[in-house]
Specification:
The complex is a heterodimer.
Chain A: H1 2-7, H2 10-24, H3 28-66, H4 69-72, E1 76-77, E2 82-83, H5 86-117, H6 120-135, H7 138-165, H8 181-205, H9 209-217, H10 222-232, H11 234-250, H12 253-258, H13 276-283, H14 290-325
Antiparallel strand pairs in A: 1-2
Helix pairs in contact in A: 3-14, 5-8, 5-11, 6-8, 8-11, 9-10, 11-14, 13-14
Chain B: H1 2-44, H2 50-54, H3 68-98, H4 103-117, H5 120-135, H6 140-165, H7 168-176, H8 181-192, H9 194-209, H10 236-244, H11 249-282
Helix pairs in contact in B: 1-11, 3-6, 3-9, 4-6, 5-6, 6-9, 7-8, 9-11, 10-11
The chains are: A mainly alpha, B mainly alpha.
Chain lengths: 328, 285
């Protein structure tokens, strides 16, 4: 033992020691297996970082050229190579917020019905149907939007609204194509509804039954008991809303197909608009110039950052509610 | 006294109104689903015949033809995605559940949650800069990689959840017999949880099968029969997107048929998913 130690350097012995340990303890399999799975976990971890890095590299040209004016400039002109994302960001925010404004009460109503009111025989198939909505591909929604929703809105809803409510700037007669903000908002509503209703339903269900019983014992009506349950679940419902917002902001195909694709800010909901996701979907494959492509990648980066922030907040809210309620 | 009665009726009325509103919301939620199914089936069924599955698309405007290349392309792209995404997801999920009691694992969990919320179009852009730019042309690989990235979070988290359901006593029984931990994990724990993991895989596959946004500038699309993974590849979803913008009536009809086939495909995947989960609850582990 002494002789070999003298013959080799300190470092070599230590290495040999580790190897010996691994071989002798018959745990070489464990050693390799743990590191192998760790490797894949690291891969998943670095995937997000790699994505941000790749997009930052791709967007660098545009960031250097336009700086912050990219966000405040309202001209999006690929021919003159001037790229300002303001109308696009405006379209993204307005379409998602309007969609949420309609969907949150609706989704909450569905969630209340499913978790508090529906009898067992109705609840299961109804939950299944609502979840089925989430499984339909975005492009099929878009197809339906183009050939069913757009003509219906163009021929019946828009003339009616501009006739009755035309004094409001939102319903002033704009484009008569039927493709525009309103159509996109309605499609988004249908697509975000399953997320909001299914997460809210799960959260309402996780509220302990004795909360309801206590309310009934005090003579509360069903609705009054539900109000108590809702106030217990409010941070979770906020989380569900934000997950819905994240989905609405990033929704691509259906919106691209019905929003009309024009980068301008207009008060009328009938006018065409644009969202970040739909600009990328619509123009990326044809973007020839380096600066053009870089600007589109910068849009993707902004979209990425926004959805990461929204989703992180939403997850934290849903997590903390579940933890508070003792459900994992 | 009259005051009390007023409040009694007020709360009764509000109760009835709110409950009907909630019922109405559930009803309204079902309407679009009914509409979408009605139109997809009634319009899609016209071209739903054998030639749709076995023939190539005709030039725009000509009648007939099918989408054999797109159906094959969808299977290829989802297949590439699965070949990359499934092993990564299962291994990462195994790490999270078996060795994941540390800070790094919580960070990985957080990252998978973040990843699952990233819009698919953003993943498409990343696949473009990562694969298409260095290769200098669109390819099925790029599309498959985009789909893989999209399914990794689903598979990772389901694998973790499903492995966690395996009781500790089973692991301890394995270890007590002197079986090394890795063998216990692979041969006993993963084997016990495989049904749950399979549902996670099916869920991931069915989610990406209908994706269009990450494919339009990665796999692009192809009018011809091509099994070359280094070249652009057609897919049902991209065909729907392209055909929906056409001016020809029969082309639009084919878009509806493609939509119907895509929905049937995804339904089969989720039906498998339902069957597997159902039998999982019957056989307790």
């Amino acid at each position: 033992m002494n002789i070999t130690k003298d013959a080799e350097s300190d470092n070599g012995t230590r290495k040999k020691g580790i190897l010996k340990k691994i071989f002798l303890s018959h745990n070489i399999g464990d050693f390799i297996f743990e590191r192998l799975t760790l490797l894949f976990a690291v891969l998943v971890f670095f995937l997000v970082i790699l994505m941000s890095y790749e997009m930052y590299q791709g967007a660098k040209l545009s960031i250097d050229t336009f700086g912050w004016s990219f966000l405040s400039n309202s001209v999006w002109d690929p021919v003159r190579e001037i790229f300002g994302a303001l109308p696009i960001i405006y379209g993204t925010i307005v379409s998602s917020l309007l969609a949420l404004l309609i969907t949150v009460p609706l989704g909450l109503g569905v969630a209340i019905f499913l978790s508090e009111l529906a009898p067992g025989w109705l609840e299961k198939p109804l939950s299944f149907l609502v979840e089925l909505l989430a499984g339909i591909p975005s492009v099929v929604y878009g197809l339906w939007g183009i050939f069913v929703l757009v003509p219906w809105l163009r021929d019946y809803v828009q003339p009616f609204l501009s006739d009755k409510l035309g004094f409001l700037p939102f319903f002033q007669e704009g484009s008569s194509s039927g493709r525009g903000m309103l159509t996109a908002v309605l499609i988004l509503c249908v697509m975000v509804l399953p997320i909001i209703s299914s997460i809210s339903r799960d959260i309402l269900r996780s509220i302990p039954q004795n909360q309801r019983e206590a309310a009934y014992a005090l003579g509360a009506t069903r609705w009054q008991a539900i109000k108590i349950v809702l106030s217990d679940a409010r941070s979770g419902i906020l989380g569900a809303t934000m997950l819905g917002l994240g989905r609405a902001i990033g929704e691509t195909m259906a919106v691209t197909m019905v929003i009309g694709n024009a980068a301008k800010i207009s008060s009328s909901l009938f006018d065409p608009s644009y969202t970040m996701a739909s600009v990328i979907a619509n123009e990326f494959a044809e973007a020839t110039g380096k600066l053009y492509q870089s600007s589109l990648i910068e849009l993707a980066l902004i979209l990425f950052v926004i959805t990461v922030i929204i989703n992180s907040l939403a997850r934290l809210l849903v997590w903390s509610t579940r933890r508070k309620l003792g459900v994992h | 006294m009259a005051d009390n009665k007023f409040f009694y009726y007020k709360k009764k009325t509000i109760n009835i109104i709110m409950i009907s509103l909630s019922f109405g919301a559930a009803l309204v939620a079902i309407i679009p689903l009914a509409f979408i199914f009605y139109y997809t089936i009634s319009k899609g069924i016209t071209y739903l015949n054998l030639s749709f599955f076995f023939e190539m698309p005709k030039p725009m405007g000509e009648d007939g033809g099918g989408m054999a290349n797109a159906i094959m392309g969808t299977f290829y792209l989802v297949g590439i995605g699965g070949l990359i995404g499934v092993p990564v997801g299962i291994m990462a999920g195994t790490y999270l559940s078996e060795f994941g009691q540390n800070k790094f694992a919580s960070m990985v969990r957080f990252m998978t949650d973040v990843l699952s919320g990233v819009p698919s179009i953003v993943v498409g852009v990343v696949a473009y800069t990562l694969v298409v730019l260095p290769m200098k042309h669109f390819s099925a690989y790029a599309g498959g990689i985009a789909l893989a990235i999209l399914m990794i979070p689903t598979i990772t988290r389901t694998t973790e959840e499903m492995i966690k359901l395996v009781p500790h006593s089973i692991r301890e029984a394995g270890l007590a017999l002197g079986i090394p931990k890795w063998k216990t994990t692979v041969m006993i724990v993963l084997k016990t949880a495989w049904k749950g993991i399979a549902t996670g895989i099916l869920l991931g596959l069915s989610r990406v099968a209908g994706e269009t946004a990450p494919l339009i500038f990665t796999a692009l699309g192809n009018q011809f029969w091509s099994t070359d993974l280094g070249q652009p590849m057609a897919s049902l979803s991209v065909y729907i997107y392209d055909y929906a913008r056409s001016a020809y009536e029969n082309v639009i009809q084919q878009a509806w048929t493609a939509a119907l086939v895509l929905i049937i495909l995804i339904s089969i995947l989720s039906l498998l998913f339902k069957i597997i989960t159902r039998s999982k609850y019957k056989t307790k582990f």
